[in-house]
Amino acid sequence: MPAPEEIKIHAKNIDAAAREIIGILEDTSIGNVIFVRGWRGFGASAALKAVAQRLKSSKSTFGRVVHVDCSLWKSMRALQKAVADELELPPSVMAIFDRQDEEDDFSGIDEGSRGVIPDIRTEIFRKLAISKFVVIFHNGIDKYIDLYECGVPVIPILNNKVLWTWHGRFRPDFCLEYTMEQHTDVVVNYSHNDWICGKALLEEAKEVVTYMGIPEPYMNQVIVEKCFQYIYALGSGRSPYFGEWRNHASNYLVYDGIIQGQGDTSAWGAADALQRNMHLDWLFLMSIGDDIRRHLQCRLHDRLVLWEHKDDVLPDETGLLHSEATTFFIVPANRYGTRMTTLREGIFQHSHSSKLRVLHLSWCGFSFESPPFLCCSQLRFLQLNECRNIPSNKHPSHNEDLSCFQKLWVLHLRYTNWYRLLSEEMMNFMADLRELYVQRVKGWSISDLRGRGPSLVKVHVQSDYSERVPDLRKEYYLPDLSTSFLKTVILVDCVIVQQVVSGMLPPSLESFTFVCDYHSPSPIISRFSFQGCSQLKSILLKGYLVSLKELDLSGTAVKTFDLREVKAPNLQRLILLGCKKLCAILWPLENRRTNVLKVLHIDTTRSTSPGQANWEEKPKDQAIFLLLLLLNWASVDMRPLILNGTSLQGIQGSLGRLNRLKILSTVMYIWKWVHLLQVVLLLVTMKLLKESGVCASLIIIYMQVMPSFRATYKLAPIMKV
């Protein structure tokens, strides 16, 4: 494949760059596919937007201008829909997207895996094939996208053009993009001068502000630039521990005070919006280019200090902390073969220490009774990684000022056995604490969490299972969190938790994760019950849960229940009553499935008023129940099964149609090992259901029919069986 032609433009601002790019587009002597790199990636997206605006607002050689911004990548389906929106395809065609998305919901296909729709591709091709067009495309995925897959006919003989970039939202160039450029005809590069550099970065900031949609004074390009500089300063340290900081990356901007708002909620919302609309991952994966570093160096301020220690004792505190510093990191210079460094007692004894809002200490030793940062009264974030207690010579005072903990928003302990910070007294004292991370604290688990935690929205606990053997005479439950405002609970290797029962979790809970490593001791969890968690949308269970017997998701807002990462051979009860949004259950692989399931309750219907008759829905429910009976006869005791509130007893008293189905199910039971006959009977059953005009319920079931015979049965609303 020949190398693409490179064209360098010498514009001094984005508008001038747009004019030069339009000239390149209208030049019929060059190729059809044109890639804009910008200045090290910056300014490319803004230039494409300016080109689109100019071409749409004035007469040009192109009869149609299609501008598609997928810089935040979702899927090929989303790209195709964006093209269809630009072409203003008729509503009857656009409705195909809704129908296919609904079908994919029931099939359990996640949004990122949804591909193009052939019928839409045909319509797009018809619309564009008879016109001269240019497609301006912001690609948000790290691979080349052939727009022909969506239906865009890029035909050289017609001089149709594709102008595209992989950049935008503060994503610079990588080596990766040079591979993608091999699929293009022309590469447009900016001249490397400081004037266009500054303009390009400013345009990136303006673009992000536009995407976020947060009005001033809470967000503007100046704040976005500061955020970029701050995150860049974190990445520029090239510390081996930087990978652990990415969990807090965007929220650091709130902890440090760069992002503020009218109340804390506005600040957190702005940080979340920034994370969604700004590419930051590249800072964690690579070192920034030297020319970008050189340009940004003069803009960096002294608010963030990163100190890498190599000695047993940190040097004299003089000069360690700048007067304007609000963030301070002390980390080892080498990730492997690290050695503990001792913090001097007076390291933070400066008048400007009270400005510190973010403190991260790694492999540091100090007195837990009298920590050196007690004078840092404005701390919002405290992370202690592999820190050790070094007893102090001075007598600890019971009246020690602990105000440095009172305003904390985030406490993160990792391999740091500071139990007092996790005591009920301190949990109550830290009234503003929003997020609690406890990882591998010796002898501490989620069942030890005490205190009110009135402001907690996230709890992440990773137990040190290697150090604790559960007392089998004692039952370990989650602490009572029902009065909190928790939204996220993440439990990793919490092998001693026996039950997660209803009433212990708050109604505000939105996400729950329970993960056990396959190398950890077998967890003793026997029951999960999420009744009452009406806001719960995401449940992730992963690992070998040998003791698990019951799963109850009744009343939750789960859309897709994914069990593919779970091995629960002794699961007996699966209950999903009142799950109105449930579309799909993704079952584990065959070798991970339970063989003892006795109770399966599924109800996705909307509740009716007490006085409203419900007899019209019962034939539907009964027919669906019999279909499930046929599909899963050999592996499930169906007597206690309830689907949409209809039990087996209610089915047995049905009319002739149900009697015929019952006969068929009996025949299938007799010949259950004859696969061919099973398929024939299944088809007959479905034909009878269709002749009866039965509509199916809002659910999709993936079930094992017989050993070595597995199929997918899709039951969707208003879809004939």
From TrEMBL:
InterPro entries: LRR_dom_sf. It comes from the Eukaryota. Gene3D superfamilies: Ribonuclease Inhibitor. This is NB-ARC domain-containing protein. The lineage of its organism: Eukaryota, Viridiplantae, Streptophyta, Embryophyta, Tracheophyta.
